[in-house]
């Protein structure tokens, strides 16, 4: 197992991140729920990049609405930025708020806390995700 100096099991973290980002509405959320930190904060494609706080709100967004039904993602790779943050690269299909959907490469900036997924921010451009990590600030990913 590849553990970082802070004790994060990167192999296990990548498995739960892969499950989170590849989640499809209608499948069991039981295992996924256990991997999401109770105080998690996430901006997801299924929330049209609006901030979600807490495990229950995140699980509801993953299950509810047209955007959850349309969403599909296949994780391609991870790039660890430090002991608790990774860029997750994927190909995804996601709903647009005004209707229709988009498809293409996406990047998530993921952070692990206490062995669970704590913060997730989605981006359409790798440079935006890297800038968010480097500055430590929330950067709006624009219209998704």
CATH topology: Nuclear Transport Factor 2, Chain: A
Per CATH, the architecture is Roll
Which CATH first-tier class would you pick? Alpha Beta
Taking all Cα atoms into account, the compactness measure Rg is: 14 Å
Low-confidence sequence ranges: 139-144
Number of helices: 5
Characterization of the model:
The protein is of the alpha+beta class and 144 residues long. The protein has one domain: Nuclear Transport Factor 2, Chain: A. 30% of the residues lie in helices and 36% in strands. The protein has five helices and six strands; from the N terminus they run ααββααββββα. Strands 2-1-6-5-4-3 form a six-stranded mixed sheet. The radius of gyration is 14 Å and the shape is globular. The N and C termini lie far apart (36 Å).
Provide the descriptors you would attach to this structure in a database record.
5 helices; disordered C terminus; Nuclear Transport Factor 2, Chain: A; 144 residues; alpha+beta; six-stranded mixed β-sheet; 30% helix
Offer a quick outline of the entry.
This protein has 144 residues and is of the alpha+beta class. Helix content is 30%, strand content 36%.
């Amino acid at each position: 197992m590849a553990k970082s100096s802070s004790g994060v099991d990167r192999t296990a973290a990548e498995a739960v991140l892969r499950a989170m980002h590849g989640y499809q509405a209608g499948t069991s959320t039981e295992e996924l729920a256990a991997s999401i930190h109770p105080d998690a904060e996430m901006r997801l494609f299924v929330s049209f990049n609006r901030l979600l706080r807490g495990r229950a709100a995140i699980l509801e967004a993953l299950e509810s609405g047209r955007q959850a039904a349309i969403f599909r993602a296949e994780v391609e790779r991870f790039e660890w930025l430090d002991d608790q943050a990774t860029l997750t690269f994927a190909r995804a299909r996601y709903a647009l708020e005004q209707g229709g959907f988009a498809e293409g490469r996406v990047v998530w900036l993921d952070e692990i806390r206490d062995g669970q997924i704590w913060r997730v921010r989605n981006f359409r451009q790798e440079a935006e995700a890297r800038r968010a990590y480097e500055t430590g600030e929330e950067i709006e990913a624009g219209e998704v």
